[in-house]
User: Fold this.
Amino acid sequence: MSLRTRSREIMLPLLHTSPFISNLDVFSPERLKIPQDSADSYLSWPDNDGLRGHRALKFELARRRPDVVFVPTARLLRTGRPSVVMVRNMEPLIAPFAGNSARDGLRNIARRLAARLSCQRATRVIAVSAFVRDFVVDEWRIAADKVGIVSHGVEAALPPSCWIKPVSITTPAERPIVFAAGSIRPARGL
Assistant:
């Protein structure tokens, strides 16, 4: 399950039922469909809105005047409102070219710049691990009190009785196994 799917299926219902949130409006591109019971209102904007400077999104934010705007991926977006961004993809930040084509490396450089600027502009920054927090604070000089950690993996760990070794893994039981979930990217060294 991708983080976008996790956000829609797990995070949004938790936010929506939180006693600390009085109203949750969700804005997303047309291609991402949000279950209607995950928010008080749902607005989609054209997929190409980012190419137009997010005009439709900015118009709607100006009209609704939310208390806080949460952007789940650190991206260059001026909302005119207090904002929270989340930094989670470290490949563009620490290894933009690591095994990538020149084209993908340049895209990662652009992503890195956008993430840094969005962290500088944001009211609050969420890092998904201590490593990410340390990078943002130490390398980018973002104020430590502006950066908080919200770790991935909110579900309870499975009990050992559920740990079943797949039959396709034929390594001896005493040898450790490293499992990596997610896309296989050159920067991950897999």
In short: The mean pLDDT is 80. The beta strands are 25-29, 41-45, 69-71, 83-87, 124-127, 147-149. Helices lie at 3-17, 55-64, 91-94, 102-121, 130-138. The longest strand covers residues 25-29.
